[in-house]
Amino acid sequence: MRKTVKNKIVSRIYGRGRGWAFTPNDFMQDFKRWEIGNSLEDLTKENRIRRLIQGVYDYPLYSKLLKKNVAPDMQQVANAIARKFNWRIQPTGDTALTYLGLSNQVNGNYTYLSDGPNKQYAILEQILNFKHMSFKEATITDKNAMLVVQAIKAIGEKNITEEFLQKLASKFSQKEWLKIKKQSSTAVIWVQNCINSIIENFGA
């Protein structure tokens, strides 16, 4: 039996895995706008996807322990909005530290630098900010490299410790670190030196 548009769309969503956030624009290349709208509306009513704000959805992360859907992955949400408007984005330092588990603060605010306009979104109980700014690492497109560069910059050159580098090293495999090194070649020299130190000294 031929798959309906709704079944094709939900297959794509499920294929991305739980936590994936998206907008109707992610399906515009293959389906008509009204088909996408009707499908997403039905899937939301069936609790197969979750509507976060107007025009932004996710395939909810689910906690077996809590037996319920949990807060959305704000990095996924930020990426979905950026794709919709064709913005380049990168997390600010505090946001990067939170994602990497290097911050002790409970953070309900996530801020990204963007080449789009200043925007703020209330996503359930969290706040997502986009701050317009020209940033030097605009050419860095790899997600992990962006997180690492911004996290290191947030700590500051004078405050980098061996303990911090060791914790950061544990977040990625050696293969991933080599990719991060390559992708962050446009970052400032002292940040590149930190990445090199991680690769050379901590067996990342």
How is this structure best described in words?
α4 packs across α5. The longest helix has 13 residues. This protein is α+β, with helices and mostly antiparallel strands. It has a four-stranded mixed β-sheet with strand order 6-7-9-8. The model has no long low-confidence stretch (mean pLDDT 91). It contains eight helices and nine strands. The termini are far apart. The protein is elongated and about 55 Å long.
What is the topology?
Blueprint: H1 5-16, E1 21-22, H2 33-45, E2 50-53, E3 56-58, E4 62-63, E5 68-69, H3 74-85, E6 89-91, H4 93-99, E7 109-114, E8 119-123, E9 126-132, H5 143-155, H6 162-169, H7 174-183, H8 189-201
Parallel strand pairs: 7-9
Antiparallel strand pairs: 1-3, 2-3, 4-5, 6-7, 8-9
Helix pairs in contact: 1-2, 4-5, 5-8, 6-8, 7-8
Provide a compact summary of the structure.
With 204 residues, this protein is of the alpha+beta class. It has eight helices and nine strands.
Keywords:
204 residues; alpha+beta; four-stranded mixed beta sheet; three-stranded antiparallel beta sheet; 8 helices; 43% helix
User: Which H/E pattern describes the elements?
Assistant: HEHEEEEHEHEEEHHHH
- Coarse shape: elongated
Strand content: 15-25%
Spatial extent as radius of gyration: 19 Å
